[in-house]
Amino acid sequence: MDTSDPRIEFDSKGTCNHCRDYDAKANKLHLSSEAKKSALDKLIHELKSGSSSRSYDCVIGVSGGVDSTYVAHLVKQYGLKPLAVHVDNGWNAELAVGNIERTLNACGIDLYTRVLDWNEFRDLQLSFLKASTPDSEIPTDHAIVATLFELARKEGIKHVIAGTNTATEAVMPPSWSQGHADWRYIKGVHQRFGKRPIRSYPHYDLVDLFRYSQVSKIKWVSILDFIDYNKSDAKKFLIEKLGWVDYGGKHYESIYTRFFQGYILPVKFGFDKRRAHLSNLVLSCQMSREEALEEIKTPPYPSEEMLKLDKEFVIKKLELTPQTFEEIMALPLKRFDDYPSYRNDPRLQKLKRIYKKVFRRSVF
Questions:
Q1: How far apart are CA 128 and CA 178, in angstroms?
Q2: How far apart are the first and last CA of the chain?
Q3: Which tens digits make up the pLDDT trace of 135-194?
Q4: Exposed, middle or buried: residue 153 (CB in 10 Å: 0-12, 13-18, 19+)?
Q5: Whether this model's pTM surpasses 0.90
Q6: E-state strands within the chain
């Protein structure tokens, strides 16, 4: 990590806040092998309890990426009955569709696909591009979480098993992206820059979160934190056993994500998300710092030809002209705090502190 994160802080030993934050998170998970197995066994027992009469005992999200694909393998290995959920936002790489199909067929897992209304979603994505914050992935991430919670509640399922994990995803500066669970922020950006009403877009607000977690008692479980998760080993297993095909980059199962992270973020905002991803692998001892420094020297895009094709495709699919796209790229940089949000409301912040004290968990 470097000062492309404007809020990075170094202590007297030269250790940055991201390293300290990772250590704090990882220390909670540094259990002995026996303790991890015991915790995992307890979790599996909890998942299976009372589910014998139901078709499914958990919901899992699948994108076609390494983490979610490995979760699909794990839950079947543990004898669970998962329902896989995929949110199709219109940007799936063809390779991702094939990876999802091969994985779920090999594991014998049912799939529910939520196809977003393209005209609505395009308008929302354009709104975030025009808002000029580095948060244009939020509409997809928010819709995925909303869909997982909605389906779990509808099916009476008490556990959402996620691919999120500390080993590979604990480092990400808030200044690079925030507001994923903040419906006021998402709605506010769209109200300011959008041109059409959003009627079918899956979303959740604070009341919904309370209902899901406290009324329906749905738990969000990061199962990869219960094992010694190594991304390289997981990728090798998926390739050899499930016929999974590598994309060549993190989150490259989405054409838009590949273009946004590989071009828009470094060119317009001046940071490369690979720096956080690689730092996380260094911290979890899955890569040496020297190896990471060599990798970050390579261009963020796989090839100039792919960049050219992706740029043309994204501009056309968003119904922009090359000139309009360049005008969006030239807009003054904005931040999350420049728009309405739950975090900017002092009353909600007070409620958040009370909620965290009572329920011992954060709501947003």
A1: 13
A2: 25
A3: 999 999 999 999 999 999 999 999 999 999 999 999 999 999 999 999 999 999 999 999
A4: middle
A5: yes
A6: 58-61, 82-88, 110-115, 159-162, 219-222
Phi/psi for 158 (5° steps) reads: -100, -5
- Give the neighbor-by-neighbor strand order of the sheet with 82-88: 110-115, 82-88, 58-61, 159-162, 219-222
Residue 82 β-bridge partners: 58
- Please answer whether residues 75 and 110 qualify as being in contact, where contact means their C-beta atoms are separated by less than 8 angstroms: no
Query: Please, are residues 267 and 329 in contact by the beta-carbon 8 Å criterion?
Result: yes
DSSP state of 53: T
134 closest CA partner among 275, 338, 283, 287: 338
Q: Which CATH number fits domain 17-359: 3.40.50.720, 3.40.50.620, 3.50.50.60, 3.30.70.2740?
A: 3.40.50.620
pLDDT (tens digit, 9 = 90+) per residue, 103-123? 999 999 999 999 999 999 999
Which among 209, 220, 94 is positioned nearest to 157, based on CA atoms? 220
In the chain, domain spans: 17-359
Cα dist from 358 to 180, 350, 355, whole Å? 23, 13, 5
In 3D, which of 185, 178, 195, 181 has the Cα closest to residue 124? 195
Of how many residues is the chain composed?
Answer: 364
d(CA 58, CA 159): 5
Distance CA 333, CA 330 (A): 9
87 φψ region: left (φ > 0), alpha (ψ -120 to 50), beta (else) = beta
Pair of tokens at residue 256? 């838009």
Amino acid (1-letter code) at residue 168: T
Please enumerate in sequence order all residues whose Cβ is within 8 A of that of 280, keeping only pairs 6 or more positions apart, or say none: 22, 167, 168, 169, 170, 171
